[in-house]
Amino acid sequence: MKKLHLPLGVLKALCIGLVTALTIPLWATTEFENNRTDFRDESIYFAMTTRFYDGDPSNNTQCWDAQNYNTGDPAWRGDFKGLIEKLDYIKALGFTAIWITPIVENASGYDYHGYHAHDFSKVDHRYESADVTLETLVDACHAKGIKLIVDIVLQHTGNFGEANLCKEFTRNWNKSQCMIDECMEPYTKSKGGKLPDNYLSLPGGQQYSARLSLMKNTTGTNLDTKNYWHHYGNFNWDDNSRWFAQIAGDCVDLNTEHPDVYNYIAKCYESFIKLGVDGFRIDTGGHIPRLTFNKAFLPRFKEYGETYKNKRTLYGKVPANQAPFFMYAEVCARYGNIHYREHPALSCYYYTWAESKDYPWTEDPSEFYNYYAPEGDNCDATTNWKSCWQQWTDDKDNISSQPKSNNALLNGT
């Protein structure tokens, strides 16, 4: 074997180059970590928790509608423990933040994705382990300088009701979670609920209709007496009916303009911010009026973000220059242009703006209690609904001026 002899000057240059190569990233990292105040500087890794990595096989379970397939690979397999085990892997890929799918308690035939809420006030047990909770995950991410973004749903529940807005079932976590009739106990009339006592003997289609009628007044009877859900009919992607209508059978649209509804949901998600979650990705944002965001949700989330800002740490410490709580939303656009079908009020940029006009808004829920909204109702009879319709009238065709607006919540867009 021949030995390679290098001149002393070359050797010194190589050594200096090696030290520089090792040192500069450390300096750069320190500088970056101390100034991560803008989420546009983050590199975000998206993970569907249940399908990412299985850290705890004891919480694995199949979905109700998947008993005859996915053999050996149950839909509910990945968990918080698995995410923690792979944080070094994610960081080694160059990512500085992780966005995970919704984590509230879900209920539907194939609910592993997290978008069919059954109880906004609880984290679904199937993500957790005896020694790992959401708080454990937040702390583990922050210990490695990684920010955590949680996907949240404001616009809808699943079709099995919501435990605190319209209780239709009692979830029994001591039973098999892959058997619907074991883990989901109907809250029937004889038990004080509203589902029919013969619910379990009904055909599947009739069971669905019975569940839906309690939220949407689909039988011509005022069952959703406090109007916690919208009762609008079929929606059009190209007008504001998409703000008030059900987008899918498992996405039953909440009355997001109702003070009881938005205050309850905001308080549920406050618990995540309180633990130190760094940001929210908001699902189906384009199906909620901008006015509702600006009047109801954003002020509360901004307040919670400020209240618990010292929980948002990096490497276990509060950063010298701390980033504000961050939010971004999904606005589905079935059209490849800046303006969605020439409607500013349906376009992505529209949802980042503050209001330029003061619209009436009430925090008194009694207006909704005293109003009967049958199936197909236009959602235009209460103060908050009327203001959303007026906002639509004011903004829907204002192409010439709206894109030049400087009233955004963002500092630069």
Q: TL;DR?
A:
The chain is of the alpha/beta class and 413 residues long.
Question: Care to describe what's here?
Answer:
The strands form four sheets. A five-stranded parallel β-sheet has the order 1-2-5-10-11. The chain has a two-stranded antiparallel sheet with strand order 3-4. The radius of gyration is 25 Å and the shape is globular. Strand 10, helix 9 and strand 11 (326-329) form a beta-alpha-beta unit. The protein is α/β, with parallel strands linked by helices. The longest helix has 26 residues, at 8-33. It starts with 7 loop residues before the first helix and ends in an 18-residue tail after the last helix. The protein is built from eleven helices and eleven strands. Helix content is 29%, strand content 11%. The protein has helices at 8-33, 49-52, 80-85, 87-92, 134-143, 180-183, 204-216, 259-275, 290-307, 366-369, 383-395, and strands at residues 44-47, 97-100, 104-106, 117-123, 147-153, 156-157, 169-171, 184-186, 252-253, 279-283, 326-329.
Task: Give the SSE layout.
Elements: H1 8-33, E1 44-47, H2 49-52, H3 80-85, H4 87-92, E2 97-100, E3 104-106, E4 117-123, H5 134-143, E5 147-153, E6 156-157, E7 169-171, H6 180-183, E8 184-186, H7 204-216, E9 252-253, H8 259-275, E10 279-283, H9 290-307, E11 326-329, H10 366-369, H11 383-395
Parallel strand pairs: 1-2, 2-5, 5-10, 10-11
Antiparallel strand pairs: 3-4, 6-9, 7-8
Count of strand segments: 11
Approximately how much beta-strand content do the residues carry? 5-15%
So what's the overall shape?
Answer: globular
Largest sheet: 5 strands, parallel
Number of helices: 11
Which structural class do you get from the secondary structure elements? alpha/beta
